[in-house]
């Protein structure tokens, strides 16, 4: 579903992605973990072309990433992204936040988009908030709206970049529960997170990044109990 081959990227002198080879099969959940500044967000952002790459190839569902225009909008719809900051449209209702993309990009009718949005809001447990505005919701609720909004585009893959790190502790679980449900429902997911519980429950594979490289990849069990590289041992020693 996602294939990154020989991907290289520089920010000026900084070699931020160094020969990244990452393949995610349909329905697979890959957790990307690693120290701050290692390139995790940049990796995620290259998959929906929020960042360009300098060398290598990235394909989503077998298609090379388009450069611009309509094809790029189509790719962005196919690749849902949920960020640390919720990025909801502040002046639109929750329902409008979820229907806007499907109406504009997927050319759905308003009725159809609203019906689907209500189903998705129910799925993430906040159907009764549909008429409110983002500022009236808690952080956990806003993040669940962001997930519903991404799902409304019927993406082929979902990217999550530290979706719970800006949340108060008591709200983390309600967001992780939605993500676990998605994973168990067969969604292809790339998830940057330090939530070990999520990785152990939902991930098929952990990719450990340091200094712009994927240093090791393993099952969550193997990675957490038996990390191979010194970098991974050192990192796990700090967070566990
Ligand atoms: P992570 O998500 O693992 O913390 P990032 O991908 O955000 O890492 O950043 C990797 C490195 O690239 C960091 O050193 C960061 O400062 C740098 N970086 C990120 N975005 C930019 C940018 N737009 N311009 C220049 N440097 C950047
Ligand atoms: Mg980051």
TrEMBL record:
It comes from the Bacteria. Residues 2-236 form the ABC transporter domain. Gene3D superfamilies: P-loop containing nucleotide triphosphate hydrolases (3.40.50.300). It comes from Solicola gregarius. GO terms for molecular function: ATP binding; ATP hydrolysis activity; ATPase-coupled polar amino acid-transporter activity. The keyword ATP-binding applies. It catalyses: a polar amino acid(out) + ATP + H2O = a polar amino acid(in) + ADP + phosphate + H(+). The lineage of its organism: Bacteria, Bacillati, Actinomycetota, Actinomycetes, Propionibacteriales. This is ABC-type polar-amino-acid transporter. Belongs to the ABC transporter superfamily. PROSITE patterns: ABC_TRANSPORTER_1, ABC_TRANSPORTER_2. InterPro entries: AAA+_ATPase, ABC_ATPase_HisP-typ, ABC_transporter-like_ATP-bd, ABC_transporter-like_CS, MetN_ABC_transporter-like, P-loop_NTPase. Its main location: membrane. Its EC number is 7.4.2.1. Keywords: Amino-acid transport, ATP-binding, Cell membrane, Coiled coil, Membrane, Nucleotide-binding, Transport. SUPFAM superfamilies: P-loop containing nucleoside triphosphate hydrolases (SSF52540). It is found in: Cell membrane.
């Amino acid at each position: 579903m996602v294939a990154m081959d020989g991907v290289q990227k520089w920010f000026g002198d900084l070699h931020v992605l160094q020969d990244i080879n990452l393949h995610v099969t349909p329905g697979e959940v890959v957790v990307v973990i690693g120290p701050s500044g290692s390139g995790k967000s940049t990796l995620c952002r290259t998959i929906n072309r929020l960042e360009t790459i300098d060398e290598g190839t990235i394909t989503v569902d077998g298609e090379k990433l388009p450069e611009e225009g309509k094809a790029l909008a189509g790719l962005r719809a196919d690749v849902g992204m949920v960020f640390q900051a919720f990025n909801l449209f502040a002046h639109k209702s929750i329902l409008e936040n979820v229907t806007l993309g499907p109406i504009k990009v997927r050319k759905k009718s308003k009725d159809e988009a609203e019906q689907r949005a209500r189903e998705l809001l129910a799925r993430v447990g906040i159907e009764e908030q549909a008429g409110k505005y983002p500022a009236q919701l808690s952080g956990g609720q806003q993040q669940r709206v962001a997930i519903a909004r991404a799902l409304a585009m019927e993406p082929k893959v979902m990217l999550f970049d530290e979706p719970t790190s800006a949340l108060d502790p008591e709200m983390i679980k309600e967001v992780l529960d939605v993500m676990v449900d998605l994973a168990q429902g067969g969604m292809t997911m790339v998830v940057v997170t330090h939530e070990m519980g999520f990785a152990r429950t939902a991930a098929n594979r952990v990719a450990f990044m340091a200094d712009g490289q994927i240093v090791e990849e393993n099952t969550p069990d193997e990675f957490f109990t038996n990390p191979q590289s010194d970098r991974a041992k050192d990192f796990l020693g700090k967070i566990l």
